[in-house]
Amino acid sequence: MTGKAPIGIFDSGYGGLTVFQKIREALPHCDFIYLGDNARAPYGPRSFDIVYDFTRQAVFKLFEMGCPLVILACNTASAKALRTIQQQDLPRSDDPTRRVLGVIRPTVEVLDRLSRSKHVGILGTSGTIASCSYTLEIAKLFPHIRVTEEACPLWVPLVENREADSPGADYFIRKNIDAIFERDPDIDTLVLGCTHYPLLLEKIRKHVPAGVTIFSQGERVAEALADYLQRHPEMNARISEGGSVRFLTTESPDRFSANASFFLGEPAEAGGIRWASEGLNV
Ligand code: DGL
Are 10 and 72 in contact (CB under 8 A)? Predict the structure, then answer.
């Protein structure tokens, strides 16, 4: 492998920008390419095979663009595609030293420290919850933690449609919060296992019992990535350090640029990337 290249950040659309915001704060010297598959978002309701297929295409496109390391800044893609890409596709690729990391493992790693009751709740898209990825990962690391998962399929549309602050949002948020605490009233740590949910934090807080920790994963994912680069100097040496960001979307770049600041907290000028039958064409 010659030359240095940006870190690739992938999400189904805009939500990954909430994670990327924290990654950029933690690693301001690194170069990044952010790819949002807005044309095919949301991934949450999609089947395992489809999410895997779309995610694999995007990851290999980022590899093709030179990225030696790709972060799946999306819970649904991490839940449904990460393992297969890591265990099957990467070892068979032309450069098996490239890496793909997700958001679930770093989130799970801190849960034993965060929870006193050892009862943890996970909120996510239908796809993430159906995969049981959080439950399985927690069982591996902390088998003494009891996990309750709740799919909140209407929360992403609430954010995407700018209804996060509306009274209607309270109804759906409360419904899922009540449901998860009815199933386990001893939950003391509630994980926002979806990139959009930090944008609903104020409303979620209103309906969650006092004393419960609500955990947004962005900072933790960023911290885990910085730590990974420190522990892997061979990968760190492959990352270019100009502090630049290139945003790419499979939908309209103008629309991405107009909407991105809502998720990122600052403007983002996007370029286009086009899907073709053989994969992605820049
Ligand atoms: N980024 C997705 C996640 O974190 C939410 C949006 C989607 O469903 O595509 O699960």
Answer: yes
- Rg (the chain; Cα; Å): 18
Ligand 1 center to residue 75 CA distance, Å?
6
DSSP 176: H
Helices (H), 184-244: 201-207, 218-231, 233-236
Tokens representing 246?
């290139």
pTM of the model: 0.96
Half-sphere exposure (CA, 13 Å, Cβ side) for 87? 6
Cβ of 131 closer than 6 Å to ligand 1, yes or no, is no
Structure tokens, 18: 């909430």
**Which uninterrupted H or E stretch holds 35?**
strand 32-36
* Residues carrying an active site annotation: 74, 194
Nearest CA to ligand 1 atom 1: 74
Q: Considering only CA atoms, which residue is closest to atom 7 of ligand 1?
A: 42
Half-sphere exposure at residue 144, Cβ-oriented, CA atoms within 13 angstroms: 7
Going from the Cα of 31 to the center of ligand 1, the distance in angstroms, rounded, reads 24
Indicate whether residue 10 lines ligand 1 (CB < 6 A): no
Domains of the chain: 7-103+219-281 (3.40.50.1860), 105-216 (3.40.50.1860)
Q: Using 50, 70 and 90 to split pLDDT, how confident is the model at 278?
A: very low
Residue 136, Cα to own-chain centre: how many angstroms? Answer: 18
**233 C-alpha to ligand 1 centroid (Å):** 31
pLDDT for 93-121, tens place per residue? Answer: 999 999 999 999 999 999 999 999 999 99
Q: What is the H or E stretch that residue 92 is in?
A: none
